[in-house]
Amino acid sequence: MDFFTLKEINDINKKINNLKYLELPKIINELSKAKLLGDLSENSEYIYAKKKKNLIEKEIKILEEKISKAKIKNTKNENLKKIILKDLKSDKLLEYQVDLKNKSNEINYNILNIIKNKKIGDLVKLKRYNKEILFKIILK
Protein backbone atom coordinates (compact mmCIF):
# COMPACT_ATOMS: atom_id res chain seq x y z
CA MET A 1 0.00 0.00 0.00
CA ASP A 2 1.42 3.37 -1.06
CA PHE A 3 0.50 6.78 0.30
CA PHE A 4 0.11 9.65 -2.16
CA THR A 5 -0.97 13.26 -2.08
CA LEU A 6 -3.99 14.17 -4.20
CA LYS A 7 -1.63 15.87 -6.66
CA GLU A 8 0.44 12.70 -7.01
CA ILE A 9 -2.69 10.63 -7.63
CA ASN A 10 -3.86 13.16 -10.24
CA ASP A 11 -0.44 13.06 -11.93
CA ILE A 12 -0.55 9.26 -12.11
CA ASN A 13 -4.08 9.39 -13.53
CA LYS A 14 -2.93 11.90 -16.18
CA LYS A 15 -0.11 9.57 -17.14
CA ILE A 16 -2.53 6.62 -17.39
CA ASN A 17 -4.86 8.66 -19.60
CA ASN A 18 -1.96 9.79 -21.80
CA LEU A 19 -0.81 6.20 -22.25
CA LYS A 20 -4.34 4.84 -22.85
CA TYR A 21 -5.74 7.52 -25.12
CA LEU A 22 -2.70 8.95 -26.91
CA GLU A 23 0.25 6.55 -26.88
CA LEU A 24 -1.59 3.24 -27.18
CA PRO A 25 -3.82 4.28 -30.13
CA LYS A 26 -0.73 5.68 -31.87
CA ILE A 27 1.13 2.39 -31.49
CA ILE A 28 -1.92 0.36 -32.56
CA ASN A 29 -2.02 2.48 -35.71
CA GLU A 30 1.69 1.75 -36.29
CA LEU A 31 0.97 -1.96 -35.83
CA SER A 32 -1.79 -1.83 -38.44
CA LYS A 33 0.50 -0.10 -40.94
CA ALA A 34 3.33 -2.54 -40.22
CA LYS A 35 1.04 -5.54 -40.86
CA LEU A 36 0.50 -4.27 -44.39
CA LEU A 37 4.23 -4.51 -45.12
CA GLY A 38 4.15 -8.29 -45.44
CA ASP A 39 5.71 -11.25 -43.64
CA LEU A 40 5.29 -10.53 -39.91
CA SER A 41 8.10 -12.86 -38.82
CA GLU A 42 10.69 -10.72 -40.62
CA ASN A 43 8.93 -7.38 -40.34
CA SER A 44 11.05 -5.28 -37.98
CA GLU A 45 8.51 -2.43 -37.87
CA TYR A 46 5.81 -4.86 -36.75
CA ILE A 47 8.07 -6.54 -34.16
CA TYR A 48 9.15 -3.16 -32.74
CA ALA A 49 5.57 -1.82 -32.61
CA LYS A 50 4.35 -5.03 -30.93
CA LYS A 51 7.06 -4.77 -28.24
CA LYS A 52 6.28 -1.10 -27.69
CA LYS A 53 2.55 -1.89 -27.38
CA ASN A 54 3.29 -4.57 -24.78
CA LEU A 55 5.47 -2.14 -22.77
CA ILE A 56 2.77 0.53 -22.80
CA GLU A 57 0.10 -1.96 -21.72
CA LYS A 58 2.37 -3.21 -18.93
CA GLU A 59 3.01 0.34 -17.71
CA ILE A 60 -0.73 1.09 -17.73
CA LYS A 61 -1.39 -2.05 -15.68
CA ILE A 62 1.32 -1.16 -13.13
CA LEU A 63 0.04 2.41 -12.73
CA GLU A 64 -3.60 1.31 -12.43
CA GLU A 65 -2.63 -1.24 -9.79
CA LYS A 66 -0.69 1.42 -7.89
CA ILE A 67 -3.72 3.74 -7.93
CA SER A 68 -6.09 0.97 -6.88
CA LYS A 69 -4.01 0.29 -3.75
CA ALA A 70 -3.18 3.92 -3.00
CA LYS A 71 -4.11 5.71 0.18
CA ILE A 72 -4.32 9.48 0.37
CA LYS A 73 -1.87 11.12 2.74
CA ASN A 74 -3.50 12.97 5.58
CA THR A 75 -1.47 16.17 5.59
CA LYS A 76 -3.49 17.61 8.48
CA ASN A 77 -2.39 14.96 10.97
CA GLU A 78 0.15 16.28 13.48
CA ASN A 79 1.58 12.77 13.89
CA LEU A 80 2.91 12.95 10.34
CA LYS A 81 6.42 14.23 9.72
CA LYS A 82 7.02 15.56 6.21
CA ILE A 83 10.51 15.24 4.76
CA ILE A 84 11.55 16.59 1.36
CA LEU A 85 14.88 15.63 -0.17
CA LYS A 86 16.40 16.87 -3.42
CA ASP A 87 18.38 14.45 -5.58
CA LEU A 88 21.46 16.51 -6.44
CA LYS A 89 22.13 14.61 -9.66
CA SER A 90 18.65 14.77 -11.21
CA ASP A 91 17.27 17.81 -9.30
CA LYS A 92 14.12 15.79 -8.53
CA LEU A 93 12.36 16.26 -5.20
CA LEU A 94 11.38 13.26 -3.10
CA GLU A 95 8.69 13.69 -0.49
CA TYR A 96 8.32 11.33 2.44
CA GLN A 97 5.77 11.37 5.21
CA VAL A 98 6.42 9.43 8.36
CA ASP A 99 3.66 8.63 10.82
CA LEU A 100 5.46 9.13 14.13
CA LYS A 101 3.05 6.80 15.98
CA ASN A 102 2.97 4.00 13.40
CA LYS A 103 6.41 2.49 12.81
CA SER A 104 5.33 -0.02 10.18
CA ASN A 105 6.89 1.82 7.21
CA GLU A 106 10.52 0.77 7.54
CA ILE A 107 11.83 2.79 4.59
CA ASN A 108 10.51 6.11 5.88
CA TYR A 109 11.79 5.39 9.39
CA ASN A 110 15.24 4.60 8.02
CA ILE A 111 15.23 7.98 6.28
CA LEU A 112 14.05 9.68 9.47
CA ASN A 113 16.89 8.04 11.41
CA ILE A 114 19.46 9.07 8.79
CA ILE A 115 18.44 12.74 8.88
CA LYS A 116 17.57 13.08 12.59
CA ASN A 117 20.86 14.85 13.50
CA LYS A 118 20.97 16.87 10.27
CA LYS A 119 19.55 20.27 9.45
CA ILE A 120 17.95 21.78 6.35
CA GLY A 121 20.59 22.21 3.65
CA ASP A 122 22.75 19.30 4.86
CA LEU A 123 23.67 16.54 2.43
CA VAL A 124 22.84 12.89 3.08
CA LYS A 125 23.50 9.67 1.19
CA LEU A 126 20.61 7.26 0.81
CA LYS A 127 20.55 3.87 -0.83
CA ARG A 128 17.93 3.78 -3.60
CA TYR A 129 17.63 1.31 -6.44
CA ASN A 130 20.77 -0.50 -5.23
CA LYS A 131 23.01 2.56 -5.43
CA GLU A 132 23.89 5.41 -3.13
CA ILE A 133 22.43 8.76 -4.10
CA LEU A 134 23.36 12.14 -2.64
CA PHE A 135 20.43 14.23 -1.42
CA LYS A 136 20.05 17.69 0.06
CA ILE A 137 17.54 18.13 2.90
CA ILE A 138 14.94 20.70 1.79
CA LEU A 139 12.28 20.29 4.51
CA LYS A 140 12.45 18.44 7.80
TrEMBL record:
<dbReference type="Pfam" id="PF03449">
    <property type="entry name" value="GreA_GreB_N"/>
</dbReference>
<dbReference type="GO" id="GO:0032784">
    <property type="term" value="P:regulation of DNA-templated transcription elongation"/>
</dbReference>
<dbReference type="InterPro" id="IPR023459">
    <property type="entry name" value="Tscrpt_elong_fac_GreA/B_fam"/>
</dbReference>
<dbReference type="GO" id="GO:0006354">
    <property type="term" value="P:DNA-templated transcription elongation"/>
</dbReference>
<feature type="coiled-coil region">
    <location>
        <begin position="53"/>
        <end position="80"/>
    </location>
</feature>
<feature type="domain" description="Transcription elongation factor GreA/GreB N-terminal">
    <location>
        <begin position="5"/>
        <end position="72"/>
    </location>
</feature>
<keyword id="KW-0805">Transcription regulation</keyword>
<dbReference type="InterPro" id="IPR018151">
    <property type="entry name" value="TF_GreA/GreB_CS"/>
</dbReference>
<dbReference type="InterPro" id="IPR036805">
    <property type="entry name" value="Tscrpt_elong_fac_GreA/B_N_sf"/>
</dbReference>
<protein>
    <recommendedName>
        <fullName>Transcription elongation factor GreA</fullName>
    </recommendedName>
</protein>
<dbReference type="InterPro" id="IPR022691">
    <property type="entry name" value="Tscrpt_elong_fac_GreA/B_N"/>
</dbReference>
<comment type="similarity">
    <text>Belongs to the GreA/GreB family.</text>
</comment>
<keyword id="KW-0175">Coiled coil</keyword>
<dbReference type="GO" id="GO:0070063">
    <property type="term" value="F:RNA polymerase binding"/>
</dbReference>
<dbReference type="GO" id="GO:0003677">
    <property type="term" value="F:DNA binding"/>
</dbReference>
<keyword id="KW-0804">Transcription</keyword>
<keyword id="KW-0238">DNA-binding</keyword>
